[in-house]
């Protein structure tokens, strides 16, 4: 990390953190150079979705998700999960006639507040049960590279329903 850069000055990122999305663009499959270019070309406020890496893990508050912003000219909002055992994973499902086979809960503006999108239930039929890797309470970060940060429950449902064939889920477990 550049010690003179915005991230170091605002203390919002730590060495080892994983950047999952930059301004709602998933970094899944992106090269380091592509992610760096996306950051360098961004103007105004930059929103990052970040999960703590194993090198920078802290067990201070295992259930917290901090959202902080900076007052600098280029501001940065960082959504950060400090719960070390959670793992960032990619799960590829093939939507068949029984669908994806899971329901979701959460979303921006939900009755319980602004929440990430989580898997609520794995149904007895569908791609999720056949694959076996997706679990209830997994947080869905992105669907086919489309970042779900800040979306409503209805928007997340629409995104999932519109996907056909191969569906790539980026999740935190």
Automatic annotation (TrEMBL):
InterPro entries: PDZ, PDZ_sf
Record-annotated PDZ domain positions: 1-54, 90-173
Residue ranges the record marks as coiled coil: none
Species, as recorded: Iconisemion striatum
Protein name (Swiss-Prot/TrEMBL): Multiple PDZ domain protein
Pfam families membership: PDZ (PF00595)
